[in-house]
Amino acid sequence: MQTNVTHIAIERAETSKINEVDFDNLAFGSVFTDHMLVGNYRNGAWETPKIVPYQPIVLEPSAKIFHYGQSIFEGMKAYKDKKGQVFLFRPLDNHKRFNISAARMCIPQIPEAHFMDGLTALLRLDHAFIPQKEGSSLYIRPFMFASGKGFHASPADAYKFMVACAPSGAYFSGKVRVLIEEKYSRSANGGVGFAKAGGNYAGQFYPTELAVKKGYNQVIWTDDTHHEFIEEAGAMNIFVRIGDTLVTAPTSDRILDGITRKSILQMAEDLGMPTEVRKISVSEVVKAAQDGSLKEMFGAGTAAVVSPIAGFGHRDRDYDLPELQDPYATRIKKAITDIQYNLADDPYGWRYQVM
Ligand code: PLP
Ligand code: COI
To answer: How confident is the model at residue 1 (pLDDT cuts 50, 70, 90)?
Structure first.
């Protein structure tokens, strides 16, 4: 456990909003804790971040975030066990990926100490907001964006690094149905699909809205060249179980290197589930759905955890996944959440104790 974060200055909120939080009916990411972390990049260096009351941010109208979308984020969760101990899951991997995204978007690298110490201090201060109820957690949103001013289309000279947190329940309510997308693309070779850049998500809203109108929850993105291979969903990596083998697409320029995805790949082998990381063609999935060898599909991500897919649409047809007695998705979800909530041993060393 990291202990010394006393160098992170704290300006406390005058009153707490904790009594306004309905911990028994938490939506995802819609109520926030009392404090947030803010750090500024000015004159070529990051200042040590500070904790202040959660509040609006004041920015110049010409701040480059508004015009050129120089903005990235991360998604993490804090879990509280029965004794009130608080854990993160592989947080250093989030820090590493944050800086990979930052490099691609010309945002300066944030030092590990600013990220980890600031986050640790914030979680310790707002720990009462971390839900203990099964299936709930504190969703953590680190983000960095161009606060520097000017209409010149070039990287800004000032940035903000911030962390805001939201006690949250499940990302999806109910079963997920997905549409295999064959017109729009989320990302392209040489693009920014591997980065958690804000614009990647904005670009998905319109095609996803079209899919929602047709009765689906999410789009499954396919490769941008021929829409031939399944890649990932809007906020999750995708796993397909064909026969007894769990298959997921290799990461690339176009796909986010998900921490849940790589954890599942490691655990599945240990749970006796054969895995393959390879291209999965749409025609293979459709054929497997038709001949009955397609047993499961599920999405994986920090917000979504492991979200079973009940069925998918392809062109004008719908395919239902079978209801299994003991699906891989249930076993994998239990195995990963047991580690996250400190309900099982952590042979992988993924748990990170905050307090
Ligand atoms: N793919 C996309 C596009 C995402 O936004 C996310 C969510 O973070 C994931 C995959 C899953 O990544 P992780 O498991 O690291 O949360
Ligand atoms: C996460 O899983 O943390 C994400 O970032 C997904 C988000 C778009 C809700």
So the answer is: low
Residue 153 and residue 187 share a domain: no
Residue nearest to atom 9 of ligand 1 (CA): 236
**Contact criterion met (CB below 8 Å) for 216 and 192:** no
227: exposed, middle or buried (C-beta count within 10 Å: 0-12, 13-18, 19+)?
A: middle
Query: Do 236 and 284 lie in a common domain?
Result: yes
Q: What is the pLDDT of residue 2?
A: 62
Task: State whether 247 and 332 are in the same domain.
Answer: yes
Q: Tell me: pLDDT of 217 over 80.
A: yes
User: What is the pTM for the complete model shown?
Assistant: 0.98
Q: What percent of the chain has pLDDT over 70?
A: 99
What phi, psi does 291 have (nearest 5°)?
-95, 0
Regarding the beta carbon of 307 and ligand 1, being less than 6 Å apart is answered no
Domain span at residue 79? 18-170
- The answer to whether residue 11 is domain-embedded is no
